[in-house]
Here is the input.
Amino acid sequence: MLIAILTDIHGNREALSACLAHARTHGVDRFVFLGDYVGYGADPACVVETVAELVEEGAVALLGNHDAAIEDSDEDMNSVAREAIRWTRAQLGPDHRAFLAGLPLVHEEGSVLYVHANGYAPANWDYMFGPNEALRHFSRVDAQITFCGHVHVPMLYNMSPTAKIVSFAPLADNDIPLLPSRRWLAVVGAVGQPRDGVPAANYAIFDSAQQNLRYLRVPYDAAAAARKVREAGLPEKLAQRLEQGR
Ligand code: ZN
Here is the structure.
């Protein structure tokens, strides 16, 4: 089965549409969303509606920290993120808010774990920024393969049976075999706000039969998404991030 894994869409309708179309032309069977549908971007309601429709058709959707901040406190966020969350709250109706409030933090399928931030304390939103964080994850989580987002930069970590951590920035469009002799933590880059200097949207396809993972980059109309951010009166920095991919 081919599973498309999308995360950190952040109200970016153009990026989401491009990734969904790309995944469908590649014969994807299922969608798994790792959270952060809202915050930063100008189309939060449209993104929530699109994901909710896919969930009706069998997709899995998890909770992200920006989704949680719609109902909870936004005090821990930086000022730009907080301003965007306050703007976003006014864009969402009761149905959007109920959908977000009902999302689970984790999803497990056999030896595969899906989560927004990390497997050991999903509601604390610790970032998997590097090998030390990956080691903490592996030492506290049993899953052989974990998929997370939250960092907005694609990375892949694995741990050998002797607890040696190997990390690398995966190239797009390569099939990477997730060897069963190792444990894997795949950080999927952001659909809607990439931060590695490349504006193109990120997502990944996991072939669960072959145990292969492919990271993908999908060019989309980032200029249109940035223009909408400016027209909405959201912070200028959020428009620039889309244009620059950082
Ligand atoms: Zn995010």
Residues 13-25 form the longest helix (13 residues). The first strand starts at residue 2 and ends at 6.
